Amino acid sequence: MTDASAQAPRRPGEQALTALGLGAPAPDPADASPHSFPGGGRWRTEVPSCEGPEALAVVLKEASRLDVPIHRISQGSGVWMLTDAELTEMVDATAERDIELCLFTGPRGTWDIGGSTRTDSQGAGPRARGHDAVAGCVEDAVRATESGVKCLLVADEGVLWTLHRARSAGIIPADTTLKVSALVGPVNPASYAVYEQLGADSINVPSDLTPDHLTEIRRVSATPMDMYIEAPDDLGGYVRMYEVAELIRRGAPLYLKFGLAKAPGIYPYGHHMRELTLATAKERVRRGRLALDLLARHGADGDMAPLGSRLPGDLRRFDTPS
Known about the structure:
By secondary structure, the protein is of the alpha/beta class. Helices cover 35% and strands 11% of the residues. The chain has an 8-stranded parallel barrel, surrounded by 6 helices. The N terminus is likely disordered.
């Protein structure tokens, strides 16, 4: 593990504010996360909402142009929204660059015929409604992993546990990683620990959690955390660029997700949304460059995990039925 307290990046405006008598107290080493990714490093990068081979090609080209390192690329519409040829093309393109590809699994309640998700309470939200929805998620998982996908995105606790059991039983590869969606992300340390035990290898927390909340979570779990540095509007539209160094200090091991506010939703994607999807894919990479530039200016850009690394390390699990 890395001693995070030994790092002392410059905070935004620190020198000028100190000169004006407005300096902030030094960070408390006790609230820093003691955890790292296996193999080293405290942060990785993720470009989300990459909805097909064409958008993927835009992301990869822009990442090369702007020198944005990418550990993971994720998609939100679902495995079922990709043809076999599109699925294979995305797998091959990311494998060539040693980038983890993460695809969403199966049906979700927000697209279901159930009326409760249209009410003010949102009902059960994106969770899988009924046996058939769970079965659809499993079908997607098997199809995706047979095509070479190594990371699956889930938005339901039962689906998470089922897929964890499936990899324990050899139905999907044992090195498949399971990522919890921001749509159901936990907001306290107790629930975060439960997701770890259910099989999560990477947990997306809502982007409105405070640094203190991240410290609380890190006192109970070392499971990698995903967090939108800029969140889509339907997830709050929060822009937390200037907090990136502190979010890493508190939340490591942390995936920095480069989302995009003030952009229309694109799920489920189709070619009728092509121009918007390609334009927003390109801008997400640029947002990543902006975040990385901020880290560099503040002297906090060290300790990135090696490119190509993807596994979460040893995590705690509930016992699976024999």
